[in-house]
Amino acid sequence: MSESPSALLARLRRASPLVTRSLVAASALGVVATLALVVQAVAVAGAVSALVASRASGVAGYLAWLLGATLVRALAIGASEPVGATLAAPVRRDLRRRALAALVRRGRTTTQDATVQLLTRGVDEVEAFLVATVPALVLAALAPAMLVAYLVARDWLSGVIVAASALLLPIFMWLLGLAAKDAMEQRWRDQQRLAAYFGDVVRGMLVLKSVNRSGDAVAGLDAAGASLTTSTMATLRVAFLSSFALELLGSLATALVALVLGLRLVHGTVSLDVALVVLLLTPEVFVPLRRVAAQYHASAVGVAAATDVLALLERDRPGGHRPAPTRAPSIELVDLVVADGITPLRAHLEPGSLVTVRGPSGIGKSTLAAVVAGLVEPDAGSVRVDGADLAELDLDAWHARVGWLAQEPVLRGRTVREAVAQGRRVDDATIRSVLAALRLDLDLDRPLAEGATLSAGERRRVALAACLVGEPLVLVLDEPTSHLDAASEAAVRSVVGASTATRLVITHRRFDGDDEIVLGR
Questions:
Q1: What is the distance between the terminal CA atoms of the chain, rounded to a whole angstrom?
Q2: CA dihedral 10, 12, 15, 17 (to 10 degrees)
Q3: What is the mean pLDDT of residues 346-356?
């Protein structure tokens, strides 16, 4: 799920120290451009006032200041994009390098094509976010505050009117952002789905042609493209609405300030130069806010993609240096919180025990499994393994001892043999023995396309076999009996029940075990 650009920027800074350079450069250029803008307004107002007062001798000095400020502002604005691009390019390379390394170590959790989409287009969009959206965010935070402070110092009444109007803009932006958030997330998901579906269709086209189903596949591809078009248009509609609302509010605020200044000029309660400065700077208070609102929609893909990239990197956190256990460990959940609104969880898994986890959909069962497997961090609390905090363990060694079956398992390998062995030295007899125990009779050289050659139940059992052949000390299984018939389900239950590993099983169905954890709010 995507998040606000400001929150995303904070996560990017933690993920890559190189991001701070972009932030500092954008801040410096934004401050320079804003100060130059103030000088421009003061110079124009001073020159006009001098002409009205028939003091032509002072006009040349104001024009010189105006020319210098214009040059400085043009340089600051013009340098923003190339400087941002120069500083963001290393960030793009750093994120792509680390994401690839994380995939090599931990494996992918999405389809091959969606992963490629994330590491190519997605990381490129993160760079675009840093080049365009970050300067806009910085300017939206600095410029209005600096300009309002100056206006209050020059004319407190106009400053108060502008400040009150400017404070309303973030409220409108927040409301409109809520409307746009779902549309932007859906657009990124549709884009990933289209890439994955297209790859599946291309790889399986020969098979589809042989069974005369290519027309259905092409129709499905058209449907995925139409869904992407719909979500893109929904994002554009919200962007248009937000731009109109912000333009209207900014124009009304400027008109109100101009009206008040006009009446005060008539009554002689404000000088001409002050009125001109205020009138020139008032619209500029709203320009950065309107620009960041426009960039928010333009950076929709970048925000969603960066969220996924960061999730991949955070899943690959280094951990500590304590050795992982060498026998089936005890696992203790200490005030563990894995989702908002969930009561802190306390539970104890004895070495070699089997504990099931049940609860309604969306309650956090899969997240709990990922936390115990050491793939994500909990919102609060801790997981203790043989009394030691999981975060202190060598996570590479811990992952090598954990058999992890995800809710939507991804088979890594070109054949059944490679998918089960996972790069380990496992002889064919062992692989066939494990597959037979799970009621699978598959040719070990059978090629694996993305979901094209195995049923959902077969894929799940092959993924479970990959967990079992590594002789794990801990088994974390998310719905191991999903998509299975009664006989296959019984086989899986028998194999899991016979294991001597410490087992945590997420299930919607009854599963014989030593204890049960029920999640609820």
A1: 21
A2: -90
A3: 89
